[in-house]
Amino acid sequence: MPATEDLLARKDGDFRPGSVRGVPGFFRVGQDATGRWWMIDPDGRPVFLRGVHGVRVPVNHSDTALPPDPAARLRSWGFNALGVSPDSAGRDDGLPFLGTVEFCQAVPLLVAPGLRLPDVFDPEWPRLATARAAAVCPPLAADRLLIGWVTDHRLEWAHVPVPGRPSLLQLCLSLEPSFAAYHAAWEFALALHGGKLDTLARAWGVPLANKEVVRELTRSERGISTRGYLRDEARWAREFARRYFPVAAAAVRAADANHLVLGCRSVGRTGAAVRAECTYPAVDVGLPDWRELPGTGAHPSQPVLASDVAWSEEPAASAPAARRPRRLTTFERLLRRARTSLDRLARHPDVVGYLWAQWQDEPAEQPPFARGLVHVNGAEAREHTELLAAFNQRAEALHGAPPVQTT
After folding, report:
1. Which residue in 292, 304, 296, 400 sits closest to 348, CA to CA?
2. 288 within 8 A of 350, measured Cβ to Cβ
3. 323-367: per-residue pLDDT in tens?
4. In 3-state terms, what secondary structure has residue 309?
5. What are the backbone angles phi and psi of residue 108, rounded to the nearest 5°?
6. What are the helix (H) ranges across 148-287?
């Protein structure tokens, strides 16, 4: 296994010609001679990024003791970056960070259970996206601590693994006609079946006397899940992603030519159709949920930052309690799986780093199954930090070791 010191001594000449993405003097990515992707810091050294989402300045509820400094805590646990965060906590102490554009704030927003996306079929989407990036990105364009731009924070693609829940195409078909996505979805679906509703109904195996039937199914939370529908659903999800990622990336690059485009951060898993479009050149580095990493033999190889790492599953906010994932019976078994998963993640040739899911426990979470590195009272969550600190210390060396084959 290569020593960490040897890895950090590498410079640009150690990366495959033509593989490096980004601008010298800023964060970049590139492949070494063995085909492993690395994040490259502004000084040209390869690093395995280790960050945390949601880091924020602690509130001081005492007149005496000051709350611990987040940056100092992160460094003591072996973290070297900030994920998506609500404020500038840690930046003033020199930690590299992710920026967010939040295109959802600039265009009509599609919102439903499991769905939160900009209406990329709106004719104004490209213009509004360009204007949004021009307003957000330039102030940080020369900042060497900025790793790259996340296009949107916590999108929801209506990819629900629970059978029977309405998914993206059905939800778009059920929107109000004031949304461009409503008309685009019906045109798309009908065009696949000769422009006729009865032909579409037969292909999906669903009785559709009129368009309103789909809306009624959605209102009663009955998802269409026939083979014919799911085939068209995957096509629609990919078309949606195809209209989102290139436009968002072009807007960012027009406003800031120095930094990487990292794609979006999504709530939970997005599905293969969306991931297929979240690739270069639309996105320099993907930001998939860590449970959706590509197999080590995936082609073409794409660098990714594994996002929202945590030991416990996060239930979808809209999922009924009876359908939520079952917690592990013992915390010890959870930690054993966590160690194995972290090692596999670090050895993955496409993974250039990881982002822990959240800085602080949510109010409803109960330790040790909460996901924060800090409890609500400000105390350190040692059940997480001790394991992560040990892993972070050897992450670079692990990434330089032979990968574990996955499918």
Report:
1. 296
2. no
3. 344 444 576 777 788 888 999 999 999 999 999 999 999 988 888
4. strand
5. -55, 135
6. 168-173, 180-191, 197-204, 212-219, 227-255, 272-277
Query: Does the bond joining 177 to the residue before it have cis omega, within 30 degrees of 0?
Result: no
Are 41 and 94 in contact by the 8 Å Cβ rule? The answer is no
Pairing of strands 109-112, 115-118: antiparallel
Q: How confident is the model at residue 295 (pLDDT cuts 50, 70, 90)?
A: confident
Residue 406 located in a structural domain: no
Contact of 357 with 371, CB cutoff 8 Å? yes
| Residue whose structure tokens are 């960012």 | 252
Q: Is the peptide bond before 281 cis (omega within 30 degrees of 0)?
A: yes
Kindly state whether residue 255 falls inside one of the protein's structural domains. Answer: no
Encode pLDDT of 74-124 as tens digits: 999 999 999 998 877 667 788 999 999 999 999 999 999 999 999 999 999
Range of the domain at 348: 4-158+260-399
Answering whether pTM is above 0.85, one says yes
Count of domains observed in the chain: 1
